[in-house]
Structure formats: structure tokens, C-alpha cells
Amino acid sequence: MIIVPGSNFVHAGNIPARYDTFDPRADEFAETEVVVDLRGCEIVHPPAILWCVVYLLLASQRGASCTLWVPINTGVASYLRDVGLFELLKSKQIDVDDRGLPAVSSSQTILSLTQFNTETEAEQLTNDTSEHLVDSGIGSANLYPIMTENFAELAMNAAQHSKSSIGSFGLVQFFGSEGKRKFICAVADGGVGIRESLMGNSAYREKIPYDWTAIELASRERISGTGNPNRGIGLYGVSEDMHKPGRQLIIHSGIGSLRINENLEFRAARTRLFPGTLASVWIPA
User: Fold this and answer.
1) 8-state DSSP, 18
2) Distance between CA atoms of 71 and 57, rounded to whole angstroms?
3) d(CA 262, CA 284)
4) Are 29 and 62 in contact, with CB atoms under 8 Å apart?
5) From CA 1, how far away is CA 226, in angstroms rounded?
6) CATH classification of the domain holding 266
């Protein structure tokens, strides 16, 4: 199986619809070879990077031989190596042929692609992110605490609720073109997904027939699959933090997605498969 996203690879929504039935979390997943073909990509955004990691690691865990074909565009390929994508995949025995790429180091990478598994590791990664933001000296310094807090909530949610067999992954960057630069923090896992997590609370089982309705519900205050009234604050807090101009929260889980913009408008929709959950926060610098 060869998966070819669009040339502008932003997130899971750019994956062709025919792959929605190939969920590497499912027992029925029987592919013996999986290739993610990025050769034609002219830009790859952080949420797309995390899709590559999660999909390939889950497929590899199912016994598939997995390969990432790197972009022909040298700049894009060098960027992906700089954020740590190639190194992480190769450490998990995923085949990546990145020979001949020039050595680069971008000051815009605040936290390179990093795996974490536990709440303690999520907390340590949050502390590292805070230190790296201060050391970077880029963008507006008054945004550093906001970025750190948002990353902390997303990382802790993943560690606590995902039940991911491959762990969770975080990435923080100063990203975008001149005049449109934004901070982005993104966290993803290959776990059960938001709908399955909420189904643990019998009060919600009849309210979430689809992945997109589950995501919408999960972003509300004190909504949790645990049934604990003191839980369900994290994702709600992140969504409430989007009320400033240009800010956006995008969540993908299963075949559902949700965008929350500066007006706190909720736009839930069906989308292409993300096998697990990904949440990304975009804040103008």
C-alpha cells in the first residue's frame, strides 16, 4: 500500500478518502507493506508530520514493512530531518532514505519531535518546552507562558487518556511565512480516540454516534470519560484560550475533526482518518 498525500500536506484531511478503511489500530489491518510517499510534497505542516509518525508506527506494530519516501524538494526534506522526523522513524526501524541532504539547523524548532509515555514525561517535556521558548528569543515573549500552558494541557490529556500502544508525540515550532508567522504546538497519539474514551462514561454513549460529535462534546467544560466531575477541564481550557485574533485549535480523532477559532466558533466535520488523536494550537507570534 502506497499512501500519497497532496503537495501541500497540512494534516490528515489531505490523505485520500480510500485509506479511511485502512486503520492500523484494527485487528483487521492486514497490509504487509506500507509506504508514505512524500516525494511530491512542497510543504509539510507539523500536524502532517505527526500523522506520518503515528500511522507508520502503528502499521509497523501490526507487522507491516514500513517506509517513508522523503520529499524531492531539498528544503522540505531538510526541514523534516531538522525537526527530528527521520531520526525518530529510523530509531523505530522504519526505512527512510535521507542520503545527501545538507546539514541544517533551524532556530525556529522550539521542541523537536519527541516521544513521551507517562504523565511524568509529559510534565518534563513541558518544562523543556518552556526553557526552549525562553532560550529561543523569537516571537513575542508574552506568548511563551500561553504556549507552554497549552502544550502542557494537550500533552497531559494524551498521557492520561489515549491508551496508546506507541506512546504520544509532541512538537513545538515557530512556523509560517514572513508576516504570517505563528507559534504552533501539536500533540498526537495512536490511541483509542476521543469517542472511545468518552464511551467509558455511560452518560455520553447515546450522545456521540460519530467521531466529530465526540470531539465537539469533549471540548466542553467538565466532559470526561472518567465520570469524575473534577476532570474535563484541560481541553476546554485550551479551547477557551482561542479567543484572541488569529488563534485556532484543530483536533483530529478517527474520522472526525473540529476547528475552534478566535470567535470560539465550533466547526465539527467528517474528515480523513487519523488513527488516534491529534490536537494542534496555532497562535500568531
Assistant:
1) G
2) 19
3) 11
4) yes
5) 38
6) 3.30.565.10
- Integer Cα distance of 228 and 222 in angstroms: 8
Q: Give, in order, the Cα–Cα distances in Å from 20 to each of 12, 17, 189.
A: 10, 6, 17
Nearest by Cα to 194 from 183, 181, 208, 206:
208
Q: Strand, helix or coil at 135? A: helix
Cell 499512501 appears where?
3
- The total domain count for the chain is 1
Is the alpha carbon torsion for 212, 228, 117, 175 positive or negative? positive
Residue 33's alpha-carbon distances to 3, 72, 142, 227, in angstroms, are: 11, 22, 47, 41
Question: 168 near 159, Cβ under 8 Å?
Answer: yes
Burial of 67 (0-12, 13-18, 19+ CB in 10 A): middle
Rounded CA-CA distance 260/239 in Å is: 7
Q: What is the pLDDT of residues 37-91, one digit of tens each?
A: 999 999 999 999 999 999 999 999 999 999 999 999 999 999 999 999 999 999 9
Question: How far apart (Å, rounded) are the C-alpha atoms in residues 230 and 10?
Answer: 35
Contact by Cβ (8 Å): 277, 252: yes
| Domain range enclosing 275 | 2-284
Prediction pTM value: 0.92
Give yes or no for a contact between 247 and 282, defined as CB atoms under 8 angstroms apart.
Answer: yes
Model pLDDT for residues 124-135, shown as the tens digit of each residue: 999 999 999 998
Give CA–CA dist 262/239, Å, rounded.
9
C-beta of residue 246 within 8 angstroms of C-beta of residue 179: no
Q: Residue 52: in which H helix or E strand, if any? A: helix 46-61
